[in-house]
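re: ur question from yesterday

yeah so i grabbed the chain u mentioned. its 77 aa long if i counted rite. heres the sequnce exactly as i have it in my notes:
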Amino acid sequence: VIAHEQAHNSYALLSQTEKDTFSAVYTPLKTTDPLIKLLYSINTYGLVSDIEGHAELYRYLNGKMPVELKKFYPKLI
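ran it thru and got these structure tokens back, copy pasting raw so excuse formatting
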């Protein structure tokens, strides 16, 4: 839970352009990345919004998340 909340703080540090870019990169990965698909087959909360998805990825996948998403976690990764 602490990791999830800290990811919200990290998301708040992103500019609007970075948030939009995160969304553009993250959206297709929800259905193509094996770990993300597995996560959301067990716990769908991350599908509620990009903000919650951002937090859930950090909470559950952390260092195992796709490399192209790691830059969207300032102060965490």
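noticed a couple things. Helices lie at 2-12, 16-32, 34-42, 50-60. also The chain has a mean pLDDT of 95.
anyway ttyl
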